[in-house]
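Figure 3 (text version): structure tokens given as input.
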């Protein structure tokens, strides 16, 4: 990967819908050269996916919570089971297996507090392996980004 690849990635990170023509003007390469590079970056997995970032508030998802979860048991089987449940939960936007006081840190988006309470009942209180959890409700989304470059 060279500087031109990094320039292309930075531009695409800001707007994945940029055409090869638009990218070529920014990085000083021909459109076919840009297309070839983008294809290589996709094929190699550097570009993992190209997504639309949605506004939770515009979709009626007004509440974002950061949740720290501590498991009772941490065997591979128990960890995998919890990970699978979190992957399947539509309310869970992000899930991180982490070091520190909590085993997992979640970003959970719900309509309101009532929906969040239902989520906790289903995924924490009804789950025998969840020892405890701590919730911080987001008051303001100061910065939300998936940018790396």
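Below: residues designed for each position.
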């Amino acid at each position: 990967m060279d500087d031109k690849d990094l320039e292309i990635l930075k531009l695409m990170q800001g707007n994945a819908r940029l055409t090869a023509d638009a990218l070529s003007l920014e990085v000083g390469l021909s459109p076919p050269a840009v297309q070839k590079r983008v294809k290589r970056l996709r094929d190699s997995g550097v570009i993992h996916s190209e997504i639309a970032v949605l506004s939770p508030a515009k979709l009626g998802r007004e509440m974002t919570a950061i949740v720290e979860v501590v498991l009772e048991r941490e065997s591979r089987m128990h960890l995998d089971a919890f990970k699978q449940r979190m992957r399947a939960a539509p309310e869970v936007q992000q899930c991180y297996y982490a070091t520190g006081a909590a085993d997992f840190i979640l970003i959970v988006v719900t309509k309101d507090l009532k929906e969040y309470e239902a989520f906790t009942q289903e995924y924490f209180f009804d789950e025998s392996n969840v020892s405890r959890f701590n919730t911080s409700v987001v008051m303001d989304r100061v910065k939300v980004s998936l940018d790396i470059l």
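The domain at 3-43 is CATH 1.10.10.10 (Arc Repressor Mutant, subunit A).
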